Known about the structure:
Rossmann fold, nine-stranded mixed β-sheet, alpha/beta
Amino acid sequence: MAKIKSKWICQNCGYETAGYLGKCPECGNWGSFVEEIQSAVKPDTVNAQGFLNDAKPSLLSEIHIGEEVRVSTNISEFDRILGGGLVQGSLVLIAGDPGIGKSTILLQTSGELCKNNKKVLYVSAEESASQLKLRAERLEINSDSLFIYPQINMESIRAEIDNLNPDVVVIDSIQAIYSQTITSSAGSVSQIRECCNILMQIAKNKNITVIVIGHVTKDGSIAGPKVLEHMVDTVIYFEGDKYKSYRMLRSMKNRFGNTSEVGIFEMSAKGLTCVTNPNELFLNERSQGAIPGSAIVVTNEGSRPLLVEIQALVGTTPYPTPRRVTNGVDTSRLLQILAVLEKRVGLNLSKQDVYVNVMGGIEVDEPSADLGIALAVATCARDVVVDSQTVIIGEIGLSGEIHPVHNIEKRLNEAVTSGFKKAIIPYANRIQYDKIEIVPVKRLIDAISACVCPVEK
């Protein structure tokens, strides 16, 4: 009888070791090692899977480049993320928090693809066929070319794909699928890696588009080995605030399109609907009239400019150490801006608490929001306001200078569309523009002088 072999694998990063370790030397996580039994796969089993092909090496000059065949999902925001639609033979990974809407958006996508005369196989490893039927009725999806297959066995799924020969396969989710060639339980690093490898071979060999749903860990990363993100063609994160109705699709990797695009949806009773004008969504809670500590900035999400409101609150602290609290803005970025305000403008906030919040729950990471954050803090501290018809654009340097930003004309066009009359921009970005009043500034102190006005009593 053959001796049973096992090894310990970190369930966070896939690091392997012969014995148990409390802390993973690769990712630093504690208690993440799980013992997995190793069994050798017979050579005939590998050949039976049909993964071997007779491809021959080709000269680079002899390789023909054809246009990738894209299929539109009929969902404009989803197509934006994908770079124009699903590419045939691609492997797409969608990850997000539980209940964010991953299954909903893919069930809607499946229904729209069926309208384009595509055959879709929806493999549900976490829900029964009747549960999916209830969701489809709520989403008003009814198609004769959408097949629902509740199955968790990878070999059975592959056999059904060979039988149906669909155009698109949806796997919900990769953490619940297991392969008989691996003895460990479903969701382990070995199972996820093996099942994803089988799906990749199916997509490439049969020219079938495969969309895989992945779970995320508590720190927001995709559960399973890091190699999972390297194997797929596209990685999309589904984000959203559980207290808000909007959802955001963010592309982190795309071999066939832009990697910085963002799609915005709104969750309703009938599923996810595309938000064609996101500025209305992020500015609809804006206070009537100008208030101290409020500034409108134009940030970029991929190729799309977004107008968001940044609010700041400055108050005397009862504690020995003042608090610096941010929501939607990097805290270290705020600390740098406060240091510049104190050194270059003379605004001393060492004994005051500072709170900065981005309305709507959106995350603003672009440096072009620096000037808006600084003006929001400065106006609240001095009890003055920024004109409500003014937008702020600019990055702040450590010496107080305002650095230029990219896509300035596209940002200004978006501000004009939203009804703004004035724009504070970096001096290096100054352009001739008749639709809005342009105020170019070189230093932070100039921007404060150009946009503030006293509070109306």
